[in-house]
Amino acid sequence: MARQMFILISFLIILMLFGCQQTEPVQHPTNQLPTMKVRIGEETFSTARGGYCWTDGNQSECTDASGNPFDYENSAPPIEAEPGSEFELLFSETPSSISVDWVNNLEHETLSERSSFSTPSKPGTYGYSVHANWNQGDVTFHFILLIK
Q1: pLDDT at residue number 65
Q2: How confident is the model at residue 23 (pLDDT cuts 50, 70, 90)?
Q3: Which one, of 115, 114, 120, 44, lies nearest residue 82 by Cα?
Q4: Which CATH architecture has domain 28-147?
Q5: How far, in Å, CA of 97 to CA of 114, rounded?
Q6: I need a labelling partner for 30 at 20 to 30 A (CA). Which of 48, 59, 126, 132 fits?
Q7: Strand 86-91 to strand 43-46: parallel, antiparallel, or no bridges (unpaired)?
Q8: 11: confidence class by pLDDT, cuts 50, 70, 90
Q9: Rg of the chain over CA atoms, in angstroms?
Q10: Could you tell me which residues come within 8 angstroms of residue 84 by beta carbon, excluding any fewer than 6 positions away?
Q11: For residues 80 and 147, what is the distance between their CA atoms, to the nearest angstrom?
């Protein structure tokens, strides 16, 4: 009986030692996510990253974030532009597809899947959400245009 107790206690101690062993922290793929900027004329502006789902090798991560572009005003200040100005979406890696939506007060519009557009013709504040897809996942970007 004493021998069985010794074996059981030894086994539990070994189990605890291996269970308390330090491991490498999991590296999240956030630093490997594509980025997007907006170019109007010669100027380039940063955008805010919203929610995403991304897989890198055997690691995956999904986040849930607001879909309202106006919630990201502190991360990406409004970009001033003239009515009818051309603007372009610049990605660090070319996505396989994109979807672009803008909202202004109660108006909402989904734009076609392309990377260059004209700013709205009416003055106002327009929030844009760009949902981009890659083989590894999808990322949503947000920015605000302030049309003078």
Answers
A1: 94
A2: very low
A3: 120
A4: Sandwich (2.60)
A5: 8
A6: 126
A7: unpaired
A8: low
A9: 24
A10: 118, 119, 121
A11: 6
Residue 47, CA distances (Å) to 12, 44, 79, 130, 139 in order: 53, 10, 10, 10, 12
103 three-class SS = strand
Quick: pLDDT tens for 66-111.
999 999 999 999 999 999 999 999 999 999 999 999 998 878 888 7
Among candidate residues 101, 127, 102, 99, the one with its CA nearest the CA of residue 113: 99
- Report which DSSP code applies to 78: P
Question: How far is CA 53 from its chain centroid?
Answer: 8
Burial of 140 (0-12, 13-18, 19+ CB in 10 A): buried
94-104 pLDDT per residue, tens? 999 999 999 98
Q: What is the pTM of this model?
A: 0.78
Residue 139's nearest CA partner among 46, 32, 38 is: 32
Quickly count: other Cβ atoms within 10 Å of residue 3's Cβ.
Answer: 7
Give the tokens for residue 78. 């409004």
- Asked if 72 contacts 50 with a C-beta cutoff of 8 angstroms, the reply is yes
**DSSP-assigned states of every residue in 3-19:** HHHHHHHHHHHHHHHHH
